[in-house]
Every structure is written in C-alpha cells, then in structure tokens.
Amino acid sequence: MSQKGFTLWFTGLPCSGKSTVADAVAERLKKEGFKIERLDGDIVRQSLTRDLGFSEEDRNENIKRVTFVAKLLSRNEVGVLAAFVSPYRSIRQHVREETTNFVEVFVKCPLSVCEKRDVKGMFAKARAGIIKDFTGIDHPFEEPENPEITLETDKETIDESTEKVIKGLREMKLISEIRSSEAYSPEEEEEIKKRLESLGYL
Amino acid sequence: MSQKGFTLWFTGLPCSGKSTVADAVAERLKKEGFKIERLDGDIVRQSLTRDLGFSEEDRNENIKRVTFVAKLLSRNEVGVLAAFVSPYRSIRQHVREETTNFVEVFVKCPLSVCEKRDVKGMFAKARAGIIKDFTGIDHPFEEPENPEITLETDKETIDESTEKVIKGLREMKLISEIRSSEAYSPEEEEEIKKRLESLGYL
Questions:
Q1: Is B185 a catalytic residue?
Q2: Given an 8 Å threshold on Cβ–Cβ distance, is A35 in contact with B67?
Q3: Catalytic residue among A74, A86, A181, A185
C-alpha cells in the first residue's frame, strides 16, 4: 500500500454526479488505508466559505480558499478529492498550478440529464428565475479541454465511473494496486470501520 | 525518524515572538524530514482570510478557517505550527477540540517588552488611536490557564525557546529523537535544501 499526494479535481455541471463519484472513490481508497480528504461545497461551507455567494468573484474566491487547503494536503502525501462546479478554465488552471499531482476529472453529462436529476430542486428554481447565475441555465460552464479523466455519468454506472478514476490513479502511479470492492470479509469491514472512526472520518 | 500529526498552537501578545519561534522550530523539524506546515496571519491572509478585520467576530472567523486547515493536516500525520494572537480562551478551546494532538504554546512576554520590540510599528499606531482593537492596548488577551508549553521570550533566547518546544514534542511522543542544530555537515545542508525546494517549501 503506497500513495503519493494528489489533487483529484471533479468539475462539471450541477447534478452531473461529481460528489457521488468522488464519495465512492474516497470510500474505496480510505478502506485501503490511503490518506484521503474530500472537499466540496457542502463540506467547506460552514468552515471556510460561508460568506460567499455565486457571483464570478465569489466563486473564484471559494476555489482559491479550497486550493490553499488542497495545496497543503497534496504536498504532504494526502490524496484530495475535490468536487466543485468550478465553471471557469482560468481558475481550474490556477488549481493545477498550485497543487501537487493535479488530476482534472471532467464529469460530463448532458444538461438535460442533469436537469432531470435536479437533486435539490435548484434547476427548477433557476428556470423560475428564483436563483440567479446558475451554471448551465444563466451562467456558462467552460468545458475542460484536456482533462486527465472524463466520466460520462449518463452512460456509466457509479461503479464504472469509480473504477475509471481508480484505474487512472493507478496508471498515473499515484496509488498502488488496490483490491476490488467485493474483496473484504465482514470482519475486515468491521476493522476498517473502527480504524476510520478513530481517525475522525465517520 | 517518525512523527504523529499534531497542532502546535502559539498564542500570545503581538510581538511576543510567536512566529519567530514557530519558524525556528519548523526549520529544525523540516530539516529532519518531518512533514510540517506553518500557518500564521501573514501566510493565510492572501489565500484564506483577506476579507477579515480585527473585530471579535472577524478574529473568530479567521481562527475557524485556520482550524479547518489544521484539522485536516494534523489528522493526516502532518505537524502544524500555527502562530496567532488568538486572544480568546473559548476559540482556543475550539481549536483544541477540532484538531489532532493539540499543543497550546503560551508565548509569554510582558506587554512593555512586546511594545518595545514593536516590529511593524503597530503598537505606536494603536497608542495613537490609528488602529483600534489592538490586543494588549484596547483589546483583551485572555492568558492560557493550562498551556502544555510556556515560553518566556523576555528571558530566553530564540534557541532556548526552540529547544523547549522540541523537547516538549519529544516528551509527548509526537516526534522521535532529532539531531542538534549543529550536527549537519555543509553537504547535508545542501542536500536538505534541495529536498525542501523540491517539496515547494522554499
């Protein structure tokens, strides 16, 4: 079991599946004992960014604060999985330059599919004009031009997308080989759970 | 060479010597290959807290953002050395509860000595009423009641204070034995410098 520090950056439209896949990848990697931290809007809102809204300026400030955290973690051999819409190429480029082993994961999904999912009813509010500057509706999303990994969450299952990311990390030599998700006995699952709890993860 | 994650929290009046000692300790530990991050006002202002002033609310928000960073680093086996005036007991208690292996370092120094040092001319401005809410002048400092380590920077040299902190870390079994600062050959110094540069530290 060995790993390097890295910054897996999930970018894509709202409801494209960024956090879902990032959570699934994080769970697999934590089970194997890798040092992993998840960063996304819901996680950092209370501690880091609760003063920020959704204007271009505020979105960039949001990403800058998160970038600082990802920079410190990834250069100390921690794997960071960050899921943010992060619609601007320039700010994603900034994250790439600041962090260690940056891996851009484009979570590609047609707008119509994202809108159908509409997990928190945000698209409906944006369509009704209740929310302004909503990415995909009245705010642009600049697609990545050369992402290291592309997921197509309208065509892949969560498991398939998860495997794709893990395969990518292995090929880039950022993590060593890991077991398949079915390979744990109930006793091991219990032991893993205890270890993660003691680390304050659960 | 082994270490645990920890959060060394230097608290004290402005100009008491918090950052100076924290820098010296960090240098010694980095040389030995420990994973170390320094956090203080000047370091986080651009990336994390540039919207904040010096009201009680803003100071607490400042510490809360830093706490989040220290929490993530210290639970991933990184040693954090944070130097902040952090004048309120309640907020330091918050940091203690949130982070791994919290060590409160009270940098004790009489107000008159701090004021004489006045590195950035801030005391003079505070006395003249140009700066408001300046700790020690027109803003309270709540001294730690049970700090793990107390430095008396009006009586100790920087080297003595540094040794005190390192000794404390060893006694708490947060770091293994380290060499004295004179034990490096010029070749080793050069090698260390290269390694630290490659990590993006210098």
A1: no
A2: no
A3: A86
